[in-house]
Design goal:
single chain; 229 residues; TIM Barrel; 9 helices; 35% helix; globular; binds SN-glycerol-3-phosphate; binds calcium ion
């Protein structure tokens, strides 16, 4: 089973910061997950919420802040809100990256950045996976990129996933821990798709999901889940 560092190692370092991503890579994950928004100047930044209030010492909407304003807030333990490009530079091929399209209209800017990193810095299509709860943005991404893996995120039961999968040609269906059930895993696998589950922080949940044949889990504690045997 693939263990994905959720927001890096969000349980033991400030989430979505370079420190958190380095910690996940050091723990040995093969993939990290992060959340992307666009700030006022158009740069792609890595932060979960639309506002900076919860995870930094600042206040306000990411979309209304300039990059300089965002660089001047503390995202925890002296860490900054990183640019997506800074995370790619830090990871430097040591792990694959699941980019969750969180902010509005980030699909095409993310596509453009990945194109640059593939052309200039030797990254491969298979190094990336794009996911979102905003299925319109997944469609926007698929319209410009037929190859990169897509994970369709669902907050609850994935009503209509067969039809959407036919349209988006995803790699995985990404379910919340409370939604996943044996029959649903079988249905998704029958379509040839993987089942990825968030957010799995307890070993008893991991072991249960292993028995169901779940393919990957997102965890805030990658070291704990990777080294439990
Ligand atoms: O991609 C899995 C997970 O990150 C989705 O939920 O709210 O943690 O971004 P959230
Ligand atoms: Ca996320």
């Amino acid at each position: 089973m693939l263990i994905i560092g959720h927001r890096g190692a969000g349980g033991t370092a400030p989430e979505n910061t370079l420190k958190s991503f380095e910690k996940a890579v050091q723990a040995g994950v093969k993939m990290i997950e992060l959340d992307v928004h666009q700030c006022a100047g158009g740069e792609l930044v890595v932060i979960h919420d639309e506002k900076i209030n919860r995870t930094t010492n600042g206040k306000g909407l990411v979309s209304e802040k300039t990059l300089t304003e965002l660089e001047n807030v503390d995202a925890g333990q002296g860490e900054k809100i990183p640019l997506l490009s800074e995370v790619l530079d830090l990871v430097d091929h040591r792990a694959m990256i699941n980019i969750e399209l969180k902010g509005a209209r980030v699909a095409v800017p993310v596509y453009e950045l990945l194109k640059k990193y593939k052309k200039d810095f030797g990254w491969n299509t298979d190094d990336f996976c794009i996911s979102s709860f905003d299925h319109q943005q997944l469609s926007d991404f698929r319209n410009v990129d037929r190859k990169t893996k897509i994970g369709i995120l669902y907050p609850r039961y994935p009503h209509g996933f067969v039809k959407l999968a036919d349209e988006l040609q995803p790699f995985s269906i990404n379910l919340s821990l409370r939604t996943v059930k044996p029959g649903l895993v079988k249905e998704i696998h029958a379509l040839g798709l993987e089942v990825w589950v968030y957010t799995v922080n307890e070993l008893f949940d991991l072991e249960h999901l292993e028995t169901l044949g779940v393919d990957a889990v997102f965890t805030n504690y990658p070291a704990k889940l990777l080294h439990h045997n």
